[in-house]
Write a sequence for this structure.
């Protein structure tokens, strides 16, 4: 931890490669996020054994962005339905 | 579109590379997701100009997974607060 700015450094392993992540998030959270990405990469690799690592990582990012955007859209919809119900 | 199983094929460009995404999601959604990943890669590259493309893609996946997991946790918390409020 950096004493000046409360910055945590967390070293994680993703697909066999070490990354040191700096930021304000607690190490525990960084580890959960990293394990999510690592396991998603391995899952996609299993289905597409001939992918190189760059494409694999891009597909992992796409897959995760899909889940994020889908959840975000669902939330917006729920909120707008709630507002309609309150009228 | 595949006539048998309602599978859409959408070709997108991410960080200068073409990807054909197959799946049941509408092309419009695949494009939104792809633009999100493409712009996030460019944003991270600006801050870290010496990253190779694989690491850049992994960091993009991490960044997106962080947003997804943070939103998912917030949702869980909201739901548990709502349940507590109903007691």
């Amino acid at each position: 931890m950096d004493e000046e700015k409360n910055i945590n450094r967390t070293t994680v392993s993703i697909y066999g490669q070490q990354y040191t992540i700096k930021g304000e998030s607690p190490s525990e959270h960084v580890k959960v996020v990293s394990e999510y990405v690592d396991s998603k990469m391995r899952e996609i690799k299993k289905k597409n054994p001939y992918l190189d690592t760059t494409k694999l990582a891009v597909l992992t990012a796409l897959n995760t962005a899909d889940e994020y955007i889908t959840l975000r859209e669902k939330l917006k919809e729920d909120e707008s339905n709630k507002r309609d119900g309150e009228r």
Remarks:
- Strands of chain A lie at 8-14, 17-23.
- Chain A has a mean pLDDT of 91.
- The CA atoms of residues 68 and 77 of chain A lie 14 Å apart.
